[in-house]
Design brief:
CATH superfamily of the largest domain: Immunoglobulins
Protein name: Ig-like domain-containing protein
CATH architecture of the largest domain: Sandwich
Organism: Xenopus tropicalis
Domain Ig-like: 1-91, 98-191, 198-286
CATH topology of the largest domain: Immunoglobulin-like
InterPro entries: Ig-like_CS_Receptor (IPR051755), Ig-like_dom (IPR007110), Ig-like_dom_sf (IPR036179), Ig-like_fold (IPR013783), Ig_C1-set (IPR003597), Ig_V-set (IPR013106)
Strand order of the largest sheet: 4-3-2-7-8
Keywords: Disulfide bond, Glycoprotein
CATH class of the largest domain: Mainly Beta
């Protein structure tokens, strides 16, 4: 997908040299004519072309640019060298290679956990996803629903449930994907490491002598260090978001509400993402006009 394809079609005439006045080339995709070349000129659909100089050497191959899923199917090349006609069918199969990503790589010690392997942008839809522990197949995995992207490719998630014994001795966990577009399976793997999920607190504060109200989202007691904090106002990222962070194993994000910008009413949420979490931790405050 996204590349150019060349559909081969060659021919010979009985009594060379060829006279282009008697030559006509027609290409069909299914029942639709996509290219016609004859002594009146050339007519073609977008993204398809032939090399007119190569025609005189018996090469009527069709070039198709920027191939998409919808281009897959049967093409027919018809060569007319009056009064004879030759035809050939070519099957174009579309492949899109899957991307494979394990979303969560840090586990909590002595706890069961769930891992998610995201497999995206593949075509055709048939695919096999296998989880491995030190090279051996793990049970207790489940495929989510197959979903189709706007470009016709597919995506799905595979979820694996691990028991505490599955993660002993820091094994290697791998998500292995087999697909007809791949000469060998594609995988994403990691060596088990342990962390601590964050504790999340959201509260409001006032600044002495200023009208603004400050909302604070604080994540603490987590390991390893990277963490992402996102504010949501009624489920959407605020356009006037101003935040600052300090690094380390305790971090905060600040959202300033300026009353001069109009009264904000609704829910303000803080979503915290961390390597130990499959889904973000979300804490929510109810906003209301001052004095209510």
């Amino acid at each position: 997908m996204g590349r150019d394809a060349l559909l081969p079609c060659t021919f010979r005439v009985d009594n060379p040299p060829m006279n282009p006045k008697f030559l006509a080339i027609l290409w069909h995709f299914g029942d639709k004519e996509v290219l016609r070349y004859d002594n009146k000129g050339k007519v073609s659909s977008p993204r398809v072309s032939i090399d007119e100089r190569a025609l005189l050497e018996g090469n009527a191959s069709l070039s198709l640019s920027n191939v998409t899923v919808s281009d897959g199917g049967t093409y027919r090349c018809s060569v007319i060298y009056s009064p004879e006609t030759q035809k050939k069918e070519i099957r174009l199969r579309i492949h899109a290679l899957p991307e494979v990503v394990v979303a969560k790589r840090t586990l909590v010690r002595n706890q069961g956990t769930a891992l998610r392997c995201s497999v995206t942008d593949f075509y055709p839809q048939r695919i096999t996803v296998t989880w491995l522990r030190n090279g051996k197949v793990l049970p207790n995995s489940a495929l989510g629903p197959l979903q189709q992207n706007a470009d016709g490719t597919f995506r799905l998630n595979s979820t694996l449930t691990l028991t505490p014994s599955d993660t002993e001795d820091t094994p290697e966990i791998a998500c292995l994907v087999q697909h007809e577009s791949l000469p060998t399976p594609r995988r994403d793997s990691f060596r088990v490491q342990y962390g601590v999920p964050p504790s999340v607190q959201v509260y409001s504060a006032k600044i002495n002598g200023r009208p603004e109200q400050v909302l604070v989202c604080e994540a603490s007691q987590f390991q390893p260090e990277p963490v992402r904090i996102q504010w949501l106002l009624n489920g959407k990222i605020p356009e006037d978001l101003k935040k600052s962070r300090d690094g380390g194993f305790k971090t905060g994000s600040y959202y300033v509400i300026n009353p001069t910008g109009g009264i904000q009413v609704g829910n303000i949420s803080c979503a915290v993402e961390h390597e130990t979490l499959l889904l973000p931790i979300t804490e929510t405050l109810q906003l209301s006009p001052e004095g209510e």
